[in-house]
Amino acid sequence: MKLFKPHIGAAARFALPALAAAALMAPAGTRAQPCTICDLVGRIDQASIARTIRDLSGEDSVLVGGTMELINTRYTFSPQKWLAMQYLVDRASAYGYSPEVQRFAVSVASPELMGVALSQGNDSVWVGSIEGKIFLSTASGGWGGFDLVATIDGRVNELYMGLNGKLMAACKAKGSGYGRILSSIDGGLSWNVDKDGSQVGIYSLNTITFFDDRFGFAAGDYGSFLNTADGGLSWWVDAAPSQFSYRNINGSAATGPVHFWVVTDGGYLFESVNRGYTWSGRRLTTSRLADIDFHPSGRGVIAGDRVVFSTADGGGTWAQTAMATDLRCVRMVDSLTALAAGGGGSLWMSEDGGVTWREAAEGCSGEKDIWRFAAGGDERVWTAGRNEISTVDPGWRTGDPACGLYEISDTTWGANVVFRREGWKDPGRRVILCGHYDSMNRAGDPLLCASGADDNASGTACVLECARVLAGSALEKTVEFVLFDAEELGLVGSSNFAAGVDTGIVYEGIINLDMVGADYGGTGDISLAAVDGTIDTILARLLLDSSEAYAIEYPLDWLYRSESDQPMSDNLAFKGFVDAPAVLLIESGFRDNPHYHNCTDLFEFIDMAYVRDVARTALGAVAAIAGYGAGPISRVVLHQNFPNPFFSSTQIRFEIPERMRVGLSVYDVAGREVARLIDEFVEPDRYVYLWDGRNDSGAKAASGIYFLRLKAGGATLARKLVIVR
């Protein structure tokens, strides 16, 4: 919609008994907005919006829960999403609201459990998954179940609890094939990256083992090998992958501080007697070898695909035993007793050092493959595989164990943040101002980086800023502010919200702000998406009026009119659930944004004047619908013009309590009348007049100071205005 200039002597009358009236009462050729809203819109603070965008996009550290945090992703599956959610709750609370967090299930999945570790006291057990989830169960909790305690950046291939109480994870980094070693010193609640394989060419780390609290190593794909002599504080690449012919290393053992063993794909066993610097290898079979373990007595076992090898002489010679299933893990419990597990969920035991085997706990481990297990000093065995964790008590020795089975459903939760400014007259009628706060990076790993400054910290910041301005305001109807999660996953958060709205509430409009950071289309406009010829039209016209009145630099353009070309955003989730217009404000040319769903969606590419005008447009419409400033007029009022100073045009607002003759003129500093704007009888109401800065002869008034004078009844009121050419 183009800007226009009302004729000299014409004033635009506006009243707002209902949303339809707000859109339809505006006569052609005039601007119609409740003039009391002008001061409100003028309180939009560009710096406040910028601060929110910077905080949410990881530009600045923010105080969340008493600690300084950096939010560099708001991806729904990222733990940092919860930091962003808490940040929004804190900001809304600081403005005087009482925010609600509406939780909903985003996905319910069965995790692939890969790593198991036991505490030295056998009173805690940790299990890790390929999604990087860390689950914990404790004896003090009665072994009642497994709680999700952390999510780390890596596929957990093996967990290891050191003698020093340090919990370590051998991982494959998410989104790449490189390996990582992470550690926790607080029982798995928080984790540090001790070694990033991408920096040294180390691939997926599949196994980690220690001889004591100092000497250990980790190994993995393509012959990757790292060792440590300080308990994992530092890790070094000491073995060339070519020594293993670049084969994938699957299992490991240490029989001394410098005596290491590994087994690989293709049936190879490798041994090092100098802490991993050089290796000698022998091929035991053509099958995959998965794991190896030794007892200090010199007995040892190797497990693989339908085969077990055993030694009684410290690895000098190995005897082969055929098995009925593929095995993935093996442990020497004592000098003669060994346990193994793998395909089919069975736990196998040997009482002669691995020569013969029988099923130890039939039915205890379910029917799903076991990937890892741990046996503690109390001889309780914990197994993990697929989405099942089983526990087998020491009765496995006699063939009569008690056992338990835990099935884990890995539920990812979403969280919408909702808060309201209640209306004093008709609180059951509401208008929603909303946007989504989650982010996405489709060009890389969103768990690591999805800054989302434009998509959609910009819309979120506008919603928060409008809420700040409206805090404490008297509104006839309720304004509901909603910040959605999981929009990037398919409008999941807004769909859950819309499906659960109170049917006793009357919604008069939904205004959604999504990607409002810059004019990528080069049109000089903000885009409006609303289906023409439907109920959306009413709200669209009101927003266009609001834009013309308050968006000084960037007006609104109704670009997306048909149902087929509506951009996919949260306003569409309300269709079919709420009988109210639901529209979208979005940046011009958003499809041409080179940073869309990318790690480069940063604050530096945000046009703050553009975002400010989106906030002004939205606030003006929301305030109009909610009845801001409505009430009886008791006296003649002349408001300060807006904007002031001005370049091309300014709004002049006044209020008349009863029918009377009104004179409105502009004078220069010498007292000469420059322009007579109104000289007629008018009815009681609130008025806004748009003056184009021209004198009575039609010429542009020169830059300088002028005075606006209103004569109405017996009152004479004046305001100073400034023209800057």
Task: Walk me through what this model shows.
The model is unreliable at 1-34 (pLDDT under 50). It is elongated, with a radius of gyration of 35 Å. It is mainly beta and 725 residues long. An eight-stranded mixed beta sheet has the order 4-30-32-31-33-36-34-35, with helices on both faces. A six-stranded antiparallel beta sheet has the order 20-21-22-23-24-25, with no helix packed on it. It has a four-stranded antiparallel beta sheet with strand order 1-41-38-37, with no helix packed on it. It has three domains: 33-104 and 412-626, Aminopeptidase (3-Layer(aba) Sandwich); 111-283, 6 Propeller (Neuraminidase); 637-723, Immunoglobulin-like (Sandwich).
Q: Which strand-content bin applies to the residues?
A: 35-45%
CATH level-four homologous superfamily name of the largest domain: Zn peptidases
The geometry reads as: elongated
Q: Please give the largest β-sheet.
A: 8 strands, mixed
Radius of gyration: 35 Å
End-to-end gap: 25 Å
Helix content: 10-25%
Segments where pLDDT lies below 50 for 5+ residues?
1-34
Strand order of the largest sheet: 4-30-32-31-33-36-34-35
DSSP strand count: 43
Number of structural domains: 3
Under the CATH scheme, the architecture of the largest domain is: 3-Layer(aba) Sandwich
Averaged pLDDT, please? 88
Q: Please write the CATH class name of the largest domain.
A: Alpha Beta
CATH topology of the largest domain: Aminopeptidase
- Number of helical stretches of at least 4 residues: 8
SSE-based structural type: mainly beta
